[in-house]
Amino acid sequence: MRRVLLFSGIILAGLLQATAALAISQAGVLFLMIAPGARASGMGETFVAVADDATASYWNPAGLAQQRGTEVALMHSKWFPEFTTDMYYDFACCSHHLEGVGTVGGHIIYFSYGDLPYTSEFGPEILSLYHSYEVAVSGSFGAEVAQDVLAGVNLKAIYSDLGPGQNVERGDGKAMSYAADVGLLYHGPFPRLSLGAMVQNIGPDMMYVDADQSSPLPRNMKAGAALQLWKSVYNRLLVTGDFNLGLVNGEWWINGGSEYWYADLLALRAGYLYDKYGEVNTATFGAGLRYHIFRFDIGYITAQEGHPLADTMRFSLAAAF
Q1: What is the sign of the dihedral through the CA atoms of 197, 245, 280 and 314?
Q2: Which among 72-86, 115-129, 135-149, 155-169 has the top mean pLDDT?
Q3: Structurally, how many domains does the chain consist of?
Q4: I need a surface site. Which of 50, 106, 145, 222 has the fewest CB within 10 A?
Q5: Which CATH number is 85's domain given?
Q6: Which residues pair with 236 in a beta bridge?
Q7: Domain that holds residue 15
């Protein structure tokens, strides 16, 4: 299995240049790029070099290899709360360690666009309401492939239902695709330092009508670092940073974050998002509370007044067995 992971990484790395060259239009199914997990959200969405809980199946499947036992997590977030009330994002994930083999995991993402009015091509009269949504289901595996070197892979199926077109040429607004993610995590080269990297959403375009009008997946490459600045019996302080490069349009963005734990019971988090292309330059905040096997997290994105992400709240509940 470890050889399979390494072979998959080599193949996908070789495809990156071709993928970028073939992508000539803007990406579709952008819900795949929404950061799941209120914990990571509070840390400025910097988690590729951390990936130490069940959300690693999204952030970096290599991180699954450092987990033991079983964990499940759920997240819910209202989307664009300043503009609408029926758009939302749901995320569910799990991980389970197999002794001597590695750790398996997976996640489901569901994004609801709410009920959209369906009108005729002859006027604004509303004929019906259509519920538009997108969903992705992923299976993951992570294992240690060398000393302090972890590798992981995701395989995912993607379905998009944006609503019916008005004639045959425009299609029915539905499309399916599949994709893979490959990640690496290295604990080193210095004590308390971790380095992570992964490529996301490598797969065929979403074809709603035909190949000439297809939408590329939001292919992305990210790299990051995490440094444990302070570690004692009752206190832990982690600082993180991620760099992302969109392989479809060449846009890039960087994020920074931090997480403080007291007595493994209470966590405080802060971060910053910088994306000049998406006009997102804002602070994030979060907190976490652990009790027995449960952990409750909340993440908050400030954003400037009038921005679609302003006052976005994300809530997560996790349980480890």
Answers
A1: negative
A2: 135-149
A3: 1
A4: 145
A5: 2.40.160.60
A6: 231, 261
A7: 2-320
